[in-house]
């Protein structure tokens, strides 16, 4: 029967080809999405790592500043302050 109607056979082949093409496209898109997700996750991990590293450096810098302040305060407390000469009092 199919031989008597060649158009019917062609339609079935096109339908199978279309189904295969759709399946191929779906697989391609899914693969692409997985690759994108992997890359975004890697970027996200890298960014978080760099932010943590910057946080540690900021903490170290803050500690160094506090140490310098303490050192300056200790030096200021041990050194006698030079007395400024007082202006002469006017006698009336």
UniProtKB/TrEMBL annotation:
Official protein name in the record: Heat shock factor-binding protein
Keywords: Stress response
Alphabetical GO biological process terms: cellular heat acclimation
Organism this protein belongs to: Cocos nucifera (Coconut palm)
A GO CC term assigned to this protein in UniProt: nucleus
Taxonomy, superkingdom: Eukaryota
InterPro entries membership: HS1-bd
Record family assignment: Belongs to the HSBP1 family.
Region (Disordered): 1-23, 65-92
Lineage, top ranks: Eukaryota, Viridiplantae, Streptophyta, Embryophyta, Tracheophyta
Basic and acidic residues composition-biased segments: 68-92
């Amino acid at each position: 029967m199919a031989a008597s109607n060649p158009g019917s056979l062609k339609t079935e082949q096109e339908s199978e080809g279309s189904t295969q093409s759709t399946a191929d496209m779906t697989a391609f898109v899914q693969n692409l999405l997985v690759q994108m997700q992997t890359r975004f996750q890697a970027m996200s991990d890298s960014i978080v790592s760099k932010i943590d590293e910057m946080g540690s450096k900021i903490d170290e810098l803050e500690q160094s500043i506090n140490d310098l302040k303490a050192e300056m305060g200790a030096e200021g407390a041990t050194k006698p302050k030079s007395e400024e000469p007082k202006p002469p009092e006017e006698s009336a």
